[in-house]
């Protein structure tokens, strides 16, 4: 069982011992640290106004328990809460500035299995905290210097369950989203909501765009029917159902709806890396500009950006790093190769709804099937692997050793180690969310990517002595 404290929040498995897992005590402790951080940065509030925080959660089983603990902790600090109930990560991000709130907390462990949960922390813009802000919250948590209010100044709760509908409305009003055009195509789409909130919001969006929806695992009960990370090896059911239903394509989201993957009409994976590529191709064709993704993402985005005479740059892994570089380079679209679309026209956060709506609009303007659209893009293939870590493994020393070994290649150490060879690359880094080393490779052929990955897995095991 595991508890991971990082600058982006606290993530862990439910149950076990305090400090080793995400127990009720740990949930209260870190909610207290976040609330204390907000109060310290607020200065003197005008007219006696209380701080205000938006809270939403995905449908995982531990959600109600963690939600109650976090919410009541904030109330004890004298902070008002806007409770969205069942929601999505991008929905909470949209709600924070709309509510003029001071921050937000999303209770979700994203793609992690059902035994996990997490507190993901937002600033007043509805964006993830910076590294310095996250580090400060960890300091406050370690010191446990919390000061709760008296009975007359407790926070109050306002329940607002309308924000998933508001989020959909905001997406449909985007200039590059054309629901009327999509309606003329009478698409049929299968949706795998992994029994979380994507099973509510994605079908609702599709139906408002005139799409016939076939629901698969769309009951938000938190019992994930398969590993919730939207990778090919987990998605056999929807791939089969797309063919059986003769659907135009399939849509898969993770439990908090910030990652998006498509299944082509032939039942094959469109490729989560190509979610961003396709959406960016459409956006750049209408509004030329720059793009950003993280350095574990496909080279295909670079190729598409340059086709539209834009400039592409790669950031360190992590949404906050992508957003920071997007702002710096005035990128009009960006994201991560895990299927995360960041479209600043709405907000600076990964958003599956934005991705779905833009993709549908793009597809409706093409005389192609989804499989034909995928085949039109530069062909790269990735292999994504990982090695479980033990406390004895010195990851930094391992990566330094690899850097020395490949010093004559093009190397970046912004985030772990990325080695660019002539036609392929490998990126090795310690995960921020799990006790693992991730090994991502990409090459023009799947076999080449797999062979490169196997090579570096073996090298890592030799160096670490696993």
Automatic annotation (TrEMBL):
Q: Which residues form a coiled coil?
A: none
MF (Gene Ontology): magnesium ion binding; phosphoglucosamine mutase activity; phosphomannomutase activity
Name the cofactor(s) required for activity, per the record: Mg(2+)
Q: Phosphoprotein among the record's keywords?
A: yes
Q: Where is the Alpha-D-phosphohexomutase alpha/beta/alpha domain?
A: 8-146, 176-267, 274-380
For this protein, the record's InterPro entries field holds: A-D-PHexomutase_a/b/a-I, A-D-PHexomutase_a/b/a-I/II/III, A-D-PHexomutase_a/b/a-II, A-D-PHexomutase_a/b/a-III, A-D-PHexomutase_C, A-D-PHexomutase_C_sf, A-D-PHexomutase_CS, Alpha-D-phosphohexomutase_SF
Tell me yes or no: is Magnesium among this UniProt entry's keywords.
yes
> GO biological process annotations for this chain's record?
carbohydrate metabolic process; peptidoglycan biosynthetic process; UDP-N-acetylglucosamine biosynthetic process
Tell me where in this chain the Alpha-D-phosphohexomutase C-terminal domain is found. 404-458
Protein keywords: Isomerase, Magnesium, Metal-binding, Phosphoprotein
Which Gene Ontology CC terms are recorded?
cytosol
PANTHER family referenced in this protein's UniProt entry, alphabetically: PHOSPHOGLUCOMUTASE (ALPHA-D-GLUCOSE-1,6-BISPHOSPHATE-DEPENDENT) (PTHR42946:SF1), PHOSPHOHEXOSE MUTASE (PTHR42946)
What family does the Swiss-Prot or TrEMBL record give for this protein? Answer: Belongs to the phosphohexose mutase family.
Q: What is this protein called?
A: Phosphomannomutase
Q: What organism does the record attribute this protein to? A: Flavobacterium terrigena
């Amino acid at each position: 069982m595991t508890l991971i404290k990082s600058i982006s929040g606290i993530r862990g498995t439910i149950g076990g011992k305090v400090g080793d897992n995400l127990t009720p005590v740990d949930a209260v402790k870190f909610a207290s640290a976040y609330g204390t951080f907000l109060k310290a940065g607020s200065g003197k509030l005008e007219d006696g106004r209380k701080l205000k925080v938006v809270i939403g959660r995905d449908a995982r089983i531990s959600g109600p328990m963690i939600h109650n603990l976090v919410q009541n902790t904030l109330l004890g600090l004298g902070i008002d809460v806007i409770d969205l109930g069942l929601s999505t990560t991008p929905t909470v991000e949209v709600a924070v500035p709309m509510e003029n709130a001071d921050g937000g907390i999303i209770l979700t462990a994203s793609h992690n299995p059902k035994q996990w949960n997490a507190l993901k922390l937002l600033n007043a813009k509805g964006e993830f905290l910076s590294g310095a802000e996250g580090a400060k919250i960890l300091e406050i948590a370690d010191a446990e210097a919390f000061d709760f209010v008296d009975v007359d100044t407790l926070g109050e709760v306002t329940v607002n369950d309308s924000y998933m509908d508001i989020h959909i409305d905001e997406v449909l009003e985007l200039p590059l989203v054309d629901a009327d055009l999509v309606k003329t195509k009478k698409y049929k789409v299968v949706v795998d909501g992994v029994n979380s909130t994507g099973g509510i919001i994605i079908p609702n969006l599709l139906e408002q765009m005139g799409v016939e929806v076939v629901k698969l695992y769309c009951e938000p009960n938190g019992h994930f029917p398969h590993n919730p990370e939207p990778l090919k090896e987990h998605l056999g059911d929807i791939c089969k159902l797309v063919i059986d239903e003769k659907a135009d394509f399939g849509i898969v989201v993770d439990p908090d709806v910030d990652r998006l993957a498509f299944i082509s009409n032939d039942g094959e994976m469109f490729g989560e890396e190509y979610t961003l590529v396709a959406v960016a191709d459409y956006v750049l064709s209408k509004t030329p500009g720059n793009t950003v993704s993280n350095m574990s993402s496909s080279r295909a985005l670079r190729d598409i950006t340059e086709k539209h005479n834009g400039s592409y740059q790669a950031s360190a892994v992590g949404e906050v790093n992508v957003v920071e570089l997007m702002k710096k380079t005035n990128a009009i679209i960006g994201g991560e190769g895990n299927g995360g679309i960041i479209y600043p026209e709405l907000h600076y956060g990964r958003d599956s709804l934005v991705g779905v709506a833009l993709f549908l609009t793009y597809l409706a303007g093409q005389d192609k099937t989804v499989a034909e659209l995928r085949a039109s893009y530069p062909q790269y293939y990735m292999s994504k692997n990982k090695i479980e870590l033990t406390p004895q493994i010195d990851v930094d020393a391992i990566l330094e050793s690899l850097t020395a070994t490949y010093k004559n290649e093009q190397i970046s150490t912004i985030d772990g180690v990325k080695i660019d060879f002539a036609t392929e690359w490998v990126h090795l880094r310690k995960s921020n969310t799990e006790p693992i080393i991730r090994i991502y490779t990409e090459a023009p052929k799947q076999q080449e990517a797999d062979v490169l990955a196997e090579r570096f897995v073996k090298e890592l095991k030799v160096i670490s002595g696993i």
